[in-house]
Design a protein that fits this description.
Length: about 140
């Protein structure tokens, strides 16, 4: 009985959400509220500052710059110059660019390794300076 009620409530909730979404889609073009901005930027990864500048020049200067939140949503971006070392052989959940000292420790076999399938990472090239966008840290 409880399972049937839960299923009924879930169905009603989804139906209400669908109805609200459809109503908002009809309202948006008429009122100009939340009108989507045309997608003038090419989707996909950006690998250089020059490429980022080229893409950003297509947008209004007041467009917010956000980064992924810690667990969900988005947050304010903080930009900085950071020295990094690229590593290969990391799991998908690790960024492939690490602080050079941490990268050296991982390659040499520090107490905690950024391993994939029990194999330590391998440095790629030399350390270099990069622009890194991070989320703002909250208290």
């Amino acid at each position: 009985m409880y399972q049937a009620r839960a299923s009924w409530a879930s169905d009603r909730l989804h139906a209400a959400a669908d109805a609200a979404r459809a109503w908002l889609e009809r309202l948006t073009p008429l009122s100009g509220i939340m009108e989507p901005m045309p997608n003038t930027c090419e989707p996909g990864p950006v690998t250089t500052v020059g490429e980022l500048i080229q893409r950003l020049q297509q947008l209004p200067p007041e467009t917010p710059l956000l980064v992924s939140g810690y667990e969900s949503g988005c947050d304010t971006a903080v930009a900085g110059l950071t020295e990094v070392q690229e590593l290969s052989g990391l799991g998908w959940y690790h960024g492939r660019y690490q602080d050079p000292a941490e990268a050296a420790r991982q390659v040499e076999g520090g107490e905690w390794k950024l391993m994939k399938d029990g194999v330590p990472p391998v440095p790629v090239g030399e350390p270099f300076t990069a622009v890194v966008l991070r989320r703002i840290e909250h208290d």
